[in-house]
Design goal:
Blueprint lengths: L1 E4 L7 H14 L3 E4 L12 H14 L2 E3 L8 E4 L7 E5 L6 H13 L4 E8 L9 H14 L3 E8 L8 E8 L7 E2 L6 E9 L4 H13 L4 E9 L5 E10 L2 E8 L6 H18 L5 H14 L2 E5 L4 H13 L2 E8 L2 E8 L1
Parallel strand pairs: 1-2, 5-6, 9-14, 10-11
Antiparallel strand pairs: 2-4, 3-4, 6-8, 7-8, 10-12, 12-13, 14-16, 15-16
């Protein structure tokens, strides 16, 4: 059984998600130690446990250490199966982080799966669900993946209660070239539940002020659910680029600041001509390792990305090469 040290590098939950996905893809048992060792509260949190239990069901795996707070787990996969699944975090734990763990595995099946995921759709320290749907899946479609997300209900911290439906068809992943470009149009969505109508309007107006040099199209989505919150996600697509930005509303933070933060961030990505934003670069690395022959150019290389590249090079016959090109950083993946 291969042992993976979850405390190395960035020392967060990404190591767990990559290790579990790789184990399921390659039918190789793994032991993961030091889980989230560099976080204030180490060990499995609800979203990590839900991802582990989801992969147990998808791969008919034997597992050990599956409990909240566990710092070590063993995962022994068997047969990966397409199917209809329901996975409920029971808290505001991030749905998009659960998706990161299960999506590579279900894309590797023969057929179509339908997955209902419940938890937090828009919570701190994780990609918002609109970013996952428009930016992350948009990039994966360029790599040959067939998957989509439908938001049934938003879930914010602390109550959660969000629900999404994913449809995933088994797909052959191919390489990608995201070397950069300049968008003429930027799209976006402001979501808001159980707050006055003026809140999303102010967020939208503030974002538009940052995007006066572009044709910007920002939708407002109002809803009602068990939790209260708001936020904005912006994105831009092109032949050789895809990037996005986002910001969540917080108590004590003016709506105008929320819109400005998201608008100014994507404006900088557009100004610099990136191929992918830094968060997307993190999330695509496992797919680049699977496919090889890929390159993306981004504005920086995060500690998340460095840790993921180091781990994937140990697990797969792939090499990552990084290079500074002017104001951007190139990340290339090549099969050994």
């Amino acid at each position: 059984m291969l042992t993976i040290d979850g405390s190395v590098g960035e020392g967060g939950g990404q190591i767990l998600r990559i290790a579990l996905a790789w184990s399921a893809l390659r039918s190789e048992p793994v032991r993961i130690t030091g889980i989230r060792a560099k976080r204030p509260k180490p060990g499995l949190k609800p979203q990590h446990l839900t991802a582990l239990l989801a992969l147990k069901e998808i791969t008919d795996a034997e597992i050990r250490g599956a409990r909240i707070g566990s710092k070590e787990v063993e995962f022994i996969p068997s047969d990966t199966r397409k199917g209809n699944y329901i996975f409920d975090c029971g808290t505001a734990g991030s749905i998009t982080l659960m998706i990161q763990a299960i999506l590579p595995v279900l894309l590797n099946t023969d057929g179509e799966s339908r997955v209902i995921l419940r938890g937090g759709t828009d919570v701190k320290w994780s990609p918002p669900i609109d970013y996952a749907a428009e930016v992350f899946l948009g990039a994966l479609k360029k790599m040959g993946a067939t998957a989509d997300i439908q938001v049934v209900r938003r879930g914010y911290y602390p109550k959660g209660g969000g629900e999404v439906v994913m449809r995933i068809r088994g797909s052959e992943i191919k390489g990608i070239e995201l070397t950069g470009g300049t968008p003429h149009e930027i799209y976006g969505n402001v979501h808001c539940s159980n707050l006055p109508d003026h809140v999303p309007e102010r967020i939208k107006h503030s974002a538009l002020k940052e995007l006066i040099d572009f044709r910007a199209h920002i939708n407002i989505e109002r809803g009602e659910g068990t939790s209260t919150g708001t936020g904005i996600t912006l994105w831009a697509h092109g032949e050789n680029f895809i990037f996005g930005s986002s910001a969540l509303g917080e108590r004590g933070v003016r709506a105008e600041v929320v819109g400005k933060n998201a608008g100014s961030e994507i404006r900088e990505y557009a100004k610099n001509g990136v191929g992918a934003d830094t968060h997307l670069a993190d999330q695509l690395l496992i797919y680049m390792a699977m496919a090889g022959d890929s390159e993306l150019r981004t504005s920086g290389i995060s500690s998340h990305a460095k840790t993921a590249m180091e781990l994937l090079q140990k697990l797969e016959n792939v090499r990552f090469y990084t290079e500074k090109l002017g104001g951007l950083y190139s990340i290339r993946a090549e099969k050994d």
